[in-house]
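S.,

As promised, the DGJ run. Input:
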Amino acid sequence: MKIIPLDTKHTTYQMGVTEQGFLLHLYYGSKVDCDMDYLLTYYDRGFSGNPGDVDDRTFSLDALPQEYPSCGAGDFRSPSLAVRGADGTPGCDLRYKTHRWLDGKYAIPGLPAVYADQTAARTLEVVLADPGAGVEVTLKYGVLPELDVITRCAVIKNTGSREIILDKAASVNLDFLCGGYDLIHFTGRHGMERMPQRVKLGPGSLTLGSRRGTSSHQQNPFVILADHSATEDAGACWGISLLYSGNFSGEAAVDQFSQTRLTLGLREWGFDYPLAPGESLATPEAAMAYTAEGLTALSQIYHRLIRRHVCRGKYRDIRRPILINNWEATYFDFTGDKIVDIARQAAELGVEMLVLDDGWFGRRDDDCAGLGDWKVNEAKLGGPLKDVVDRVNDLGMAFGLWIEPEMVSEDSDLYRAHPDWAFTVPGRQPVRGRSQLVLDFSRPEVVDGVFNQIAAVIDQANIKYIKMDMNRSITDVYSNGQARQHYGKTMHRYVLGVYDFLERLITRYPDMLIEGCSGGGGRFDAGMLYYTPQIWCSDNTDAIERIRIQHGTSFGYPIQTMGAHVSAVPNHQTGRITPIGTRATVAMAGTFGYELDLSLITEEEKEAVKNQIATYKRYWHLIADGRYYRLHEPGRDTEMAAWNFAAADGSEALLSAVSLDTHCNGPVTYVPCKGLVPDARYDLTPVEGSAPGAKAYKKISGAALMETGIPMPLIPGEYNAWSWAVVRR
Ligand code: DGJ
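Predicted complex:
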């Protein structure tokens, strides 16, 4: 068997080409230096057929592990590629044609992809073909050895003379010959995104995905396959992160022979993607990682990958401005003077940027009108946008602006002029979400029209930041720009249109900081992070619920990508009252900011805000670049949530804990601190702003801190939070 190995520093990935040209997946795991085809077994399996040219009843694709299984070639498990001729000819039979190695990491035109220096990555291309069906598939692999990451995508080309239709085109397939696994996936809802679900896989299949047009609040396109025994600190686990912000599907299945298959890629339901002769489709990229060292180590690989090889632009490496957003302070009810007042108060406390949220344009005084009319409402602002921006700049603050380019209100000049720009099915009342319709971003002229309007606004003033929102799921996918309707093609092209919009924005405004948002974290995926180095993590700003949301998000995404703000109490979403120190502790495990009317807080709280800003700046290097450790799973392990950041060399750490419940005469919780040097000694100093009761500790051994930790104060009061600076002596 011809072996095609891919090696990273600690992992090996192997494929094998059989003498008939079938591309098998042999192995993905800890680094090995032998051919792994010895794992394959061949038996005559009933009801598992044999390829037509293979005169061997023990050779069946239904039982062998495959690299990119196609439909109709004898494997009855879930395919990665399902293709048919426009005349109804089913399936294809892909065989190996050739492969080659290239220096550097491939890019995918129009789609987000991991990038790396030419010397830090290599690309493998494996070409498979079925000339009879007119299908050629180039499997691309990007190998980043130092990061222990392998990326994948597939380019499917129609090499025949007739149209073919893709019913499914996955990005990745991983087959496991043996072993028992859990699937960890991340579900949720608006206001409660990315809750980890750990499910033991057994015979049958577990499917997941989104058909909402975005990656969604409900199901994130990041999954982990883990040994049953894998914990935060040990055990085999494989991650797959799909760099895509639209409809997707994933499946984890255990077959009749207890083999496991994990697939992730474009959503197959309604995919129906035609390819004319000569046309091709590149699937979104999937970034895979494996570690034998548990879930924390896996998360840290993704944190490094996304921080340095997905996020782009000036703000990838520098501290983001501490901002104040007016949304929860005013909602739609503001004037230019009110915005400047909010900025003035914030500037006095050390906040660095004012973000003007929804409501500054068109006739947008509530969420029923105005979307699509990207013209400044000067009557509301009391003058041109530039005046407000200049007044904010005069306070020493930068200025940011909210937009929602993909949407249109029926009550808007844009809709009145171009009703065909919205997704609506002829003769049917469209489904409304937040009283708005979705613009057909699969049409370049629609993207152009919206982009030009928005660029004209940005060009009016000194705007340094854009918050790009998206506030509904997509329905009525009917494109007036296409003669034939193909749901899957339109939806994929819609996502390409969104990426095109974003690429134009960052090209025209290279120093602009863009924050992604979709009703909070409804489009929090590695694809968006290629364009927006931070994403508003959730519309839920309640500190206690945010702990869970940020905890779940941290499995696949770095801390510095999570927009997190201190908001008012009682919290607007839950009504909960938490101390301002707790709200700040939680928001500091993210890109820190404020979202409340600071003129309404007490003088004591204003002092606290000044200290919080200083604290965030002091520990930014650890928060952004340190290793992040989940210590206690909020609400599950204990009634204490805890996490810490540690420098890569273990020289310092920032440890935080929040009490989630309070009891009379309760037990003491001990919280460890990870990522330290076992035989070093550390001093622990409570960080200013911590709740009462935090003690300082001197000369504690790293081993003791990592194994037993320190006792949390037992004091009355709800939702207390404490942080310690942990410094090696
Ligand atoms: C949803 C966002 O997540 C909020 O932060 C805010 O920007 C509103 N949209 C504005 O409509």
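The mean pLDDT is 97. The first strand starts at residue 2 and ends at 7.

- D.
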